[in-house]
Amino acid sequence: MKAISADVLSISLYNQPITTSFIQLSMKTVSCQQVIDWQNENVCHNHYGLRKRMDNELKSGTSDG
Fold first, then answer.
1. Could you tell me the end-to-end alpha-carbon distance of the chain, in angstroms, rounded to an integer?
2. Is 30 helix (H, G, I), strand (E, B) or coil?
């Protein structure tokens, strides 16, 4: 069962100074697709996120079911 939220992605930044060079290096090292893939495999949605997604689906008239 997935038991961590997307907030886990920011934990490693707590003590990291965010500079332009740090961001550039990060963007060269890890692709956006790698982050999305990791997130899809390891992160669960919290209740707020699920409710927001369901509300958006209802407003747009689309759903998976």
1. 22
2. coil
Determine if residue 26 is left, alpha or beta; phi over 0 gives left, psi from -120 to 50 gives alpha, anything else beta: alpha
Q: How far apart are CA 22 and CA 12, in angstroms?
A: 13
Contact predicate 61/22, CB 8 Å? no
CA distances from 57 to 10, 39, 46, 49, 65 (A): 28, 21, 17, 12, 11
Per-residue model confidence as pLDDT tens digits over 15-43: 989 999 999 998 899 998 998 888 888 77
pTM above 0.70, yes or no: no
36: nearest Cα among 4, 9, 2, 1: 9
